Amino acid sequence: MQFSFDHLVCFFKKPEEAITLLQKIGIHAVNGGRHEFWGTYNSLTYFGLSYIEFLGIENLSIAEKQEENRLITQIVEQLAKDKREGPARIAIRTDSIEKLAVKLKEEGFTVYGPLPGERVRADGQVIRWSLLFAENGANELTLPFFIQWEKEDGERFLELEEQGLIESHRVGNPTFESVGFIVNNLDKTITKWGNLFNLTQSEEFTDLTIHARCRKLDLDGTKLMFCEPLSEGIAEKVLKEKGETPFLVNLKGTKQRHFFEMLNGFWRFQ
Known about the structure:
about 270 residues; alpha+beta; 7-stranded mixed beta sheet; 15 strands; globular
């Protein structure tokens, strides 16, 4: 059973406006498409097969009827009700979603799916995939959801290139090095996630920019960086205001060193 980072989902009221903001800083971004059955739509920015999705609600009455798609129930709660934009959840790609569903059920998780998914591209073509959701206890960092695409990685990469989705960024040749999560208990959370996906932990380090102690899990594609606040600073402020959540995008290969806040999250260019 293989696991790879697929994408970071950021909730945004108007995903099309994220494109303009990203382009201003040299990041190539495009309109994605519509999820008609779920009442949502998106814009996208790619770094190879790892990407960031800016997801918005197009039809709230449709979105509110969703029960099994826990990403849609989350966006209704977080964006439509709480009015909170920004990084929300990650998706992990797998090649054995049916077996994974059985494994997670046996380990005691509440499981939803696999569910069929599809998006109508701007050119009218339909992209298809399967989704799986697993939930843990309340007041814990929301687990990733899982995705298995209809097409293989190599074929998808070539198609994305042909469509102009994977293109060069003016800011350089960035890779999505890691996504950062703020957590209450670094040791407990990283052990749980590491065991779940059989991932190796890095050595602990201190991130002075956000005032936190951190460790990474070596997930294929994009690493997962978990951070626990040390003192007053960015990490503590995010945890206090939003709870445990993804909050930081780390890009390498940008030919600059810059840390800034944008799209209700934090970005680090290296």
